[in-house]
Amino acid sequence: MACFISLLLSTLLLIDVHTNGPVSYEIGGWSAPWGIEFRADYLSAFVLLLVSAIASVVIVGAQTSISRELPTGQQTVFYVLYLLCFAGLLGIVASGDVFNVFVFLEISSLATYALIAMGRERQALWAAFQYLIVGTVGATFFLIGIGILYSLTGTLNMADLSMRLPSVEERQLVAVAFGFIVVGIGLKLALFPLHGWLPNAYTFAPSIAAAMLAGTATKVSLYLLIRVYFGIFGTAAATALLPVDTVFLVLGVSAALIASLVAMRQQDVKRIFAFSSIAQIGYLVVGVGLGNATGLQASLLHLFNHALMKAALFIALAAIVYRVGSSKLADFRGLGHTMPFTMAGLLIGALSLIGVPLTVGFISKWYLVLAALEAGLWPVAALVLIASFLALFYLWKIVEVAYFERSDATEPAREAPMALLIPLWILVIANLYFGIDTRLTIEGSAAAAAFLTGGAL
To answer: What residues pair up with 38 in beta bridges, in sequence order?
Structure first.
């Protein structure tokens, strides 16, 4: 119920922001920059709606999925952690104060560590511990950067920071602060080569938790990166301090290519999709690194579109794990015939991941290629297309096993229950609908990109 109430409120907030402009709420009656401010502009309201929508759709299938993967005594704890993680993600997006972003970042992270550790295999504990160490380092870097900014400007409010930073004379310290903050966010974002925690986390977490995290957590981290880069520091000032655009381009393209090649070698479908997430994060960062309005629009489009496709894929996996008890590629034999609706949903999600026309994946990758050509970087456009083509190979492995091989099981799997098929097909239909009718996403992302590149928060 809490997720659906949040979805309703997020929808009303987006309508209000679209109609009347940014909304600001002062905590305790203290006005910004002295007090804590919750602020929603078009971008943050859009991301709040996205996170609420994914969390609400995923929660529909949660009880069915965890009934097979978690003991009865742990199921209540799962919901507490799920909602705590959800609240932390919403807080990151809604906060207009960088220190409170850190607070909400830790709230969501602590809940995520515990969610991952609840996986039924012993490797889940190692995956959670690994993410705990990496996440703590990332949070520390982020906090150090915030501390340096506060010492230079005397404020923690994002809007106030964006106005005061240009007049700070200690430009080297500003560069150091920016570097610490970007590395901290990069660790949370799983930006190559800071991605080591993500494959194990997605593989060994409870399947429905992986669906929620894949659809929301990295998207919120990208939102935070965009907010810091475009909103607080400004692209011109940031690139004058450090070669940020070049770094983002190199790391983004490397992630898209290398992660796709690694995904081709995996024998667990969860790991295949985990490495594909690292590749997709690369696309997101390439758009940011291009530095133009079209590139930022492509990143915002892919933020929305990737949330839809990856949540759909992981819910399909949750349905398969529910019936088969495994996400190993070898156990997918014959599932195209015994679980036709589940595998059809997974197939459409996979086509969207590749970027096939009439799916959301095609739209965002099209804009990414356009942005690269607009910037005169045709090699980047070519590498993006090559990386998308590589996705065809590792996804074809799944299709080949599911549709062209026979199962060795004595009792063939049955179709997934409706509680998992309903959220799966809601997301699958969204993948197709927003791939055909693109007015909402393109107009919204263009408005948000113009807003940010205009230098305003």
So the answer is: 25, 95
